[in-house]
Amino acid sequence: MRAILTNAQIIDGRGNRLDGRYLVIDGTKIHEIGRAESLSSSTAIPLIDLAGCTILPGIIDCHVHLSLDGGADVVRQAVTDSIGVAALRMARNAERTLRAGITTVRDCGAKDHVDVQFRRGVAEGIHCLAPRLLLSGMPIAMTGGHCWQFGREADGADEVRRAAREQIKVGADCIKLMATGGILTEGTELGAAQLGEEEMRAAVEEANKAGKLSAIHAHGARGIKNGIRAGIRSVEHAYLLDDEAIELMLKHDVWFVPTAAAVGLVVRHGVAGGIPPDVVRKAASALESQRNTCRKAWKAGVKVAMGTDAGTPYNRHGENLQELSVLVEIGMSPMEAITASTRCSAELLGIADAVGTIEAGKEADLLVVRGDPLADIAILADPSAIVLVLKAGRLAHLGSDAAAVDRLWPATERMS
Fold it and tell me: Which residue blocks in 189-342 are alpha helix, DSSP H?
């Protein structure tokens, strides 16, 4: 498909707002960005007038669980689902995610390698409506540790090393390690360290040798610091981050993925929404600290990428972009929140050469919304504001009021 998108403002993912430009898509790529006054009115390429709209890079969510549905008791769901049911959930949730403008995700853990099997199905064309998928396979936890119900339990450096190799063998892109207890796992506490420094170092060594990412689930400061000293690339959540951990993150150039909306959703819906009381208790105890430490890390200069933990209670796939509003509440500007969700997330995931910014030669992963998210960041989370979503130049989703685009886009260039 060749097309020219005109009359929209462009937010390029690098912190720039570009007005009075046009954007040319050629096949899977962004071919050209130019000034509107230089655009010939006699061009044979279809012109798509997007007056009143904003074009952004496709959003990148660095922390989702596509096999979980955002129900009140997702741990029970993970335990009781068969692999077949989990795969069907992944298909539905992947489609919802892509239609919301998220064109790349990193899945941070699923049972029995169902994520890897699902990606194979996407690659073979069995299910096409899915974002780009980076996968973690089964998260590695100590015996009885956080998410042991759908993770790979391992104790001691040698066994953790073996567990990491198993995930790499099946095709994982990221080794996910449980450094502390978590909100959802009964019998674990947020501040308690779990996998130790030497155990995690063994896994990180395997990830590095294979050219893979590494990430820790961590809330308590001790577990966070263990992971940083072990060489981890990103810290997920970090609700109980302390000043020493922030300094270590800066010193070792470690990324922070706050998943800022997740804890508030648990507290908001609470026991009345069917969430287990112990889960609500732990979330409520961490909410204020999470907001404060996230703000402190950001202001200190820690590199932040966007992740939602979608799939956790009331944190539903397709509603991922509520995360940006929370980042703005914490202290980011709308432009900073968008940059964290595009270029920064691409850099964390090691895919910034292909996606994350609007530049000639990059993949045509684009989100077009009606209105200006720099004036109101909540527009991005409003399904009715979406005009179109492109993944690698193919139409993945079309808003209900985009009849002009519908007429111009050939059926052969639509994802289905």
Answer: 197-209, 221-230, 243-251, 260-269, 277-300, 322-330, 334-340
Residue 70 and residue 98 in contact, taking contact as beta carbons nearer than 8 Å: no
Q: Kindly report, residue by residue over 340-394, the tens digit of the pLDDT.
A: 999 999 999 999 999 999 999 999 999 999 999 999 999 999 999 999 999 999 9
CATH of domain 59-349: 3.20.20.140
Do the beta carbons of residue 395 and residue 129 sit within 8 Å?
Answer: no
Q: How do the domains of the chain map onto residue ranges?
A: 2-57+357-413, 59-349
Question: Are the C-beta atoms of 167 and 137 separated by less than 8 Å?
Answer: yes
CB–CB of 217/146 below 8 Å? yes
Token pair, residue 148, equals 């042991």
Helix extents (H) in 67-156: 74-80, 83-99, 114-123
In the DSSP assignment, the letter for residue 104 is: E
CA dist., res. 395 & res. 363, Å (int) = 13
Q: Do 86 and 111 contact (CB within 8 A), yes or no?
A: yes
Separation between Cα atoms, residue 239 and residue 111, nearest integer Å: 25
Kindly state the helix (H) or strand (E) to which residue 31 belongs, with its residue range: strand 29-35
What does the alpha-carbon distance between residue 253 and residue 237 come to, in Å, rounded to a whole number? Answer: 17
Scanning 137-196, the segments in alpha helix (DSSP H) are 157-170
Q: 60 pairs with which residues across the strands? A: 104
What whole-number distance in Å separates Cα of residue 186 and Cα of residue 201?
26
pTM, two decimals, is 0.97
- Pull the structure tokens for residue 396: 């993945």
> Which residues touch 412 (CB under 8 Å, ≥6 apart)?
none
Mean pLDDT, the chain, integer: 95
- What are φ and ψ of residue 100, in 5° steps? -85, 0
Q: Does domain 2-57+357-413 have CATH number 2.30.40.10?
A: yes
- What's the CA gap between 14 and 99, in Å, rounded? 23
Nearest Cα residue to 302 out of 349, 252, 231: 252
